[in-house]
Specification:
Elements (H helix, E strand, L loop, with lengths): L2 H9 L3 H23 L6 H8 L3 H7 L3 H21 L7 H18 L1 H12 L6 H24 L8 H17 L1 H8 L6 H18 L6
C-alpha cells in the first residue's frame, strides 16, 4: 500500500460523524426557515437549499417537513430540560439559580430561531408538541418544582410559589430570543451584544435571588 493510500485511509471520517454533521446542518437550516416563514410557508426544498444539500438527502434523514419541524421543537425542549435537570436539591439556590439563568440566556442567544418557533407553536395550540409537553416536560417540570420546594423546606429561600417561579424564569430569559427584535429597536442596535446578555444575567439574578429571599453572598 502506498503512503498516499495509507494517509487517505487514516483520515477517512467515520460515517456516524458525517451523519451527525448533516443532521445538525439540516436542523439549523430548518430552524431559520421555520422561524422566518412559519410551518405552512416552509418547504423541504427551501430547507435543502438553505442547508446546501440535495432534497433527497434531507428526506433521507427526515421523512417529511413535519418530521423536521418536530425535530426542531424537540431539540430546543431537550436543551431547556437539560438545564432544569441540572438543578439539584443539595445545591444552594444562590449558585444554582444563577447558573440556570446563565444557561437559559445563553440558549436564547445561541438558539433564538428555535425559541421563536416553540413560542409560535404554543400560540397555535401546540398541535405538534403537546405530547412532549404532557410527557417529558411535565415530568421535568414536576422534578424541578420539587427541588424548589426542598430549598424552601431547608430555609434557603422564602416560601414562594415554585411553579410560578419557574414560569417567571422561562418568561424572563426566553424573551431575549422571542422579543429580541423589539429589544434591538428600542436599544437602537442591529444585534444584541454580549454586554446585553451579561447585563441581563446580573439583573435577573439579582431580581430572582432578592425576590425569593436568597442571600446574595
Amino acid at each position: 500500500m502506498t503512503e498516499k493510500k495509507k494517509t487517505a485511509k487514516r483520515t477517512r471520517r467515520p460515517l456516524t460523524e458525517i451523519r451527525q454533521e448533516n443532521i445538525d446542518q439540516i436542523v439549523k437550516a430548518a430552524e431559520k426557515q421555520f422561524a422566518d416563514n412559519g410551518f405552512s410557508g416552509t418547504t423541504v426544498s427551501s430547507i435543502a437549499e438553505a442547508a446546501g444539500l440535495p432534497k433527497p438527502n434531507v428526506l433521507y434523514y427526515f421523512k417529511s417537513k413535519e418530521g423536521l419541524y418536530r425535530a426542531v421543537l424537540k431539540r430546543i425542549l431537550e436543551l431547556w430540560m437539560e438545564a432544569m435537570h441540572d438543578l439539584h436539591a443539595e445545591d444552594h439556590p444562590r449558585e444554582a439559580l444563577r447558573g440556570y439563568i446563565v444557561r437559559k440566556l445563553r440558549q436564547s442567544r445561541d438558539f433564538p430561531d428555535a425559541s421563536k418557533i416553540f413560542a409560535a407553536e404554543i400560540l397555535h395550540g401546540a398541535p405538534y408538541v403537546r405530547e412532549e409537553l404532557e410527557g417529558p416536560l411535565k415530568r421535568q417540570f414536576d422534578d424541578t418544582v420539587a427541588v424548589f420546594r426542598a430549598w424552601i423546606a431547608k430555609g434557603w429561600m422564602d416560601p414562594v410559589n415554585p411553579e410560578h417561579l419557574l414560569f417567571t424564569l422561562w418568561a424572563s430569559t426566553q424573551s431575549y430570543a422571542d422579543f429580541a427584535l423589539q429589544m434591538k429597536v428600542l436599544l437602537g442596535r442591529e444585534e444584541l451584544a454580549d454586554d446585553d446578555f451579561d447585563n441581563a444575567i446580573e439583573l435577573l439574578t439579582r431580581l430572582v435571588l432578592k425576590g425569593c429571599g436568597v442571600k446574595m453572598v
